[in-house]
User: Which sequence fits this backbone?
């Protein structure tokens, strides 16, 4: 479930030869694709459930789920027209928009950020300030360092620093192997995996340490799709929302459907999928009347933090210093109405 924001810099010309073939939005059957941001996991539940239940077919859609590719991020694929939809992250959308790429978020998969910086419980590193000068096993995203520095600063470190190390394993497994002192994980997946293995962790959610809430993940498309294939987008989101609504109301069934629908071998531990589904069920909507709803405040505060870091670049490679057009980063217009009770 690790993000791949650094790949947004892959040249779009490499993708230009492989366009998606979406049919017209005249009410006929359309073939569309959605790119995964990582190997199948419970963040993707709604899409796999909708496909397995035949809800895309009900909307006259043939949906192909593209496997995770190390060669290009979903944002690049969507921007280039190689994929019609994709799983992405608020950070990646902000990077894309700042660089002039026409990526737009259609839905927040989870309302509250569910990631955390973690350490082993018995390490003695029980607060962010103690991470100063320690080893961090990262994944190459451009905003890891400024975000971690801000977390440490929030906990009283005036001049944060840490060593970014390369490991041959992921997540909390790098902690167990003593290859790193702290890592950044998704609590719904790796956090659940740690609990299933009886590994006790200290968790430091970014939003508890001066970092604004941000959506992770989101479902994105190209602005051209929203303008020229609006009906296709609407039908796709209607079926997808049904999938996530089922994940909210019946996580056990949703987990079974995800396991059935994913490629063989995706889940060597089905129990992890089921426990993760239970963890995420109340978080998909978290007080919203409908799944996917996005707020302008969330799409403003974290992108502003990104601007303030001095790491955000425009299409010419210049540092962005002024506010961007945050309302254009997302739309709720293609979400269906809240289910009637």
Assistant:
């Amino acid at each position: 479930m690790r993000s791949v924001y650094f790949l947004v810099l892959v040249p779009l010309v490499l993708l230009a030869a492989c366009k998606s073939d979406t049919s017209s939005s005249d009410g006929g059957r359309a073939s569309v694709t959605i790119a995964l941001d990582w190997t199948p996991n419970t963040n993707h539940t709604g899409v796999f459930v909708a496909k397995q239940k035949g809800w895309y077919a009900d909307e006259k859609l043939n949906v192909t789920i593209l496997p995770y590719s190390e060669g290009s991020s979903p944002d690049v694929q969507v921007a280039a027209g190689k994929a019609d939809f994709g799983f992405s992250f608020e950070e990646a959308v902000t990077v894309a928009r700042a660089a002039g790429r026409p990526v737009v978020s259609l839905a927040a998969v989870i309302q509250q950020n569910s990631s955390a910086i973690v350490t082993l419980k018995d390490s003695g590193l029980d607060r962010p300030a103690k991470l100063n000068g320690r080893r961090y096993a990262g994944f190459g995203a451009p905003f890891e360092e400024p975000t971690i520095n801000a977390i440490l600063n929030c906990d009283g470190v005036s001049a944060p620093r840490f060593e970014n190390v390369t490991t041959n394993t992921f997540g909390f497994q790098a902690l167990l192997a003593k290859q790193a002192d702290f890592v950044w994980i998704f609590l719904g997946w790796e956090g659940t995996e740690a609990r299933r293995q009886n590994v006790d962790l200290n968790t430091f959610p970014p939003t508890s340490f001066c970092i604004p809430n941000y959506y992770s993940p989101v479902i994105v498309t190209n602005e051209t799709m929203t303008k020229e294939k609006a009906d296709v987008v609407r039908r796709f989101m209607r079926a997808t929302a049904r999938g996530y609504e089922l994940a909210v109301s019946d996580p056990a069934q949703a987990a079974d459907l995800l396991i059935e629908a994913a490629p063989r071998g995706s889940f060597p531990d089905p129990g992890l999928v089921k426990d993760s589904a239970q963890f995420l069920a109340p978080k998909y909507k978290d007080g919203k009347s409908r799944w996917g709803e996005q707020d302008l405040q969330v799409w403003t505060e974290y992108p502003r933090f990104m601007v303030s870091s001095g790491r955000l670049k425009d299409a010419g490679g210049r540092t962005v210093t002024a506010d961007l057009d945050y309302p254009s980063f997302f739309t709720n217009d293609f979400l269906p109405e809240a289910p009637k009770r």
User: Anything to note?
Assistant: The chain has two domains: 5-111+215-329, 115-208. The domain at 115-208 is CATH 3.40.190.10 (D-Maltodextrin-Binding Protein; domain 2). The longest helix spans residues 230-249. The beta strands are 30-35, 61-66, 85-88, 103-108, 115-120, 135-137, 163-165, 182-186, 201-204, 218-222.
